[in-house]
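so my prof wants the structure for this chain in the tokens format not the other one, which i didnt know existed until like an hour ago. anyway here's the sequence
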Amino acid sequence: MPLYLSIKLATISTAVLIISTMPIAYVLARSDWKGKMFVESLLSLPLVLPPTMFGFFLLYILSPISYIGKMWGNAFGSPLLFSFTGIVLGSVIYSVPFAIQPMKSVFAKLDKRLYESASILGLSPIAVFFRVAIPNSVSGIMASAILVFLHSIGAFGVILMIGGSIPNETRVVSVAIFEAVLSMDYEKAWMLSAMLLPISYVFLLVVNKLMKEK
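here's what i got, hopefully its the right format
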């Protein structure tokens, strides 16, 4: 079912992104170095690039003719393109700024005295991250996770470019709605939209509540 596939995609993408980008968001929020602006701009590119353009880049990068595509094919015997693994990878890359920006914001807003006290007590930078920054940023991290989940569950252009529409593999709900409209099956399009709308609305309510609590 397309909705189940979308939820599965969004859940995996969210877990991978939050775990992998949390340290990056922390470093960007709490330190300054030459070239930081260029790194932040690079990580924010998915916000400004058209989804189809971004999808085209990924289409080439993940294709069997690229180094990454060849390496994956040799290791696992199957292509990345037009596979569930491929759309997960595409979703993760495309949603990076939606994970980093909220967490970076909440890490930057933490009271500096917390960090100073932790340093005085002799905690290492890594210990400060795990024992001070994360416990005091739970609401922001949760808000970031929900935003990533919603962005992933509603992804269309990138997913269509690198995944196509393979039943039970890459046909997520956004692609299924698009195909239903193209085939003039408006009843199916309405049904799928009606299932997705309340899920998105409830999650947005939770995000707004979390942001007010920060």
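also thought this was worth mentioning. Residues 2-30 form the longest helix (29 residues).
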